[in-house]
Amino acid sequence: MSGTVIVFDFDKTIVDVDSDNWVIDELGFTDLFNQLLPTMPWNSLMDRMMMELHSKGKTIEDIEEVLHRIPLHPRVIPAIQAAHAFGCDLRIVSDANMFFIETILKHLGIREYFSEINTNPGYVNEEGRLRILPYHDFNKASHGCTLCPPNMCKGLIIDRIQDSISQEGNKRMIYLGDGSGDYCPSLRLKERDFMMPRKNFPAWDLICKDPLLVKAEIHGWSDGEELEQVLLHLINKISMEENVHEQLIASDCKLQTLSVSA
Ligand SMILES: Cc1ncc(C[n+]2csc(CCOP(=O)(O)O)c2C)c(N)n1
Ligand SMILES: [Mg+2]
Fold first, then answer.
1. Which residues are noted in the entry as substrate-binding (predicted)?
2. What is the phi/psi pair of residue 91, to 5°?
3. How far is Cα 194 from Cα 65, in angstroms, rounded to an integer?
4. Is 182 in the pocket of ligand 1 (CB under 6 A)?
5. Which ligand 1 atom lies nearest to the CA of residue 182?
6. Cα–Cα separations (whole angstroms), residue 96 to 83, 90, 171, 238
7. 9 is catalytic
8. At what angle do helices 224-261 and 76-85 cross, to 10 degrees?
9. Which is the catalytic residue, given 9, 18, 47, 89?
10. Which residues does 39 contact at the CB level (< 8 Å), separation at least 6?
11. Mutate to test the pocket of ligand 1, among 10, 11, 19 (most ligand atoms within 8 A of CB)
12. Which of ligand 1's atoms lies nearest the C-alpha of 154?
């Protein structure tokens, strides 16, 4: 079992567009969306838009059909499969929603590669309408992070994952993301971790302003092909370092045995 945890953002990292915009645009609701956007938080607006879709006769099947043809780069699935075959623990942290993400991943046949999906709840209610709720209930209390949107601080989720894996030994993390919401988690990574921001996207631009704030090693990527190359290179690098480490421990044991018997 590899000691590597890989955390993927979803929109513009696994899929090549924002799934929220994809659904709204493909179903012809862009104008209403743009009109309402200045009046409410993104996550609340998505719930509202699902109500609008429902009231205009758009069904869950219509939404699923649009999600099934979301654009993604052909090398992303092979990259995910290879990382999983290496024994890495794959997780998702996304400000999209559970319904969109699970519908897409199941359709692509890659849902089971991920041990965990952290995202905004999304479910079909008794009227057949999709409800989208905040991951963090900001009406109850703020999560307190000023870098992140009110409904989700990805940094807090990374802290929680780091706490839970610290009991499993010396695990290392690779984080892939594109958006401004992926900047906060990049600041939480440790020296031995890796940050993979998408080049010339918001997370990359924020990191470039003061790269020394990120303790992890930074490796950019531009598209699915480069994502695959860089990710597999890092997995290999970690795996070789683990082997060297194990050999050092083994030879150290041997030395101790020799010195005891001498
Ligand atoms: C200027 C501006 N206004 C609103 C938003 C909100 N937004 C756009 S797409 C998306 C889902 C991201 O999912 P994932 O975390 O999987 O990439 C969210 C929350 C934004 N990014 N930028
Ligand atoms: Mg994203």
1. 20, 95
2. -135, 160
3. 36
4. no
5. 15
6. 23, 17, 27, 30
7. yes
8. 10
9. 9
10. none
11. 11
12. 15
Tokens read off for 156: 């807090």
Name the pairing type of β-strands 122-124 and 130-132: antiparallel
Assess: ipTM above 0.90: yes
- Ligand 2 ion local residues (Cβ < 5 A): 9, 11-12, 178-179
Record the tokens describing residue 162, joined without a space: 């780091």
pLDDT by position in tens, the chain (length 262)? 578 999 999 999 999 999 999 999 999 999 999 999 999 999 999 999 999 999 999 999 999 999 999 999 999 999 999 999 999 999 999 999 999 999 999 999 999 999 999 999 999 999 999 999 999 999 999 999 999 999 999 999 999 999 999 888 889 999 999 999 999 999 999 999 999 999 999 999 999 999 999 999 999 999 999 999 999 999 999 999 988 878 888 887 676 766 766 6
Considering only CA atoms, which of 53, 105, 52 is closest in space to residue 76?
105
Question: CB of 181 closer than 6 A to ligand 1?
Answer: yes
Say what the pTM is: 0.94
Tell me how far the alpha carbon of residue 22 lies from the centroid of ligand 2, in angstroms: 13
Check whether 9 is labelled as a binding-site residue: yes
Distances (CA, A) of 58 to 53, 64, 132, 174, 257: 5, 11, 16, 39, 72
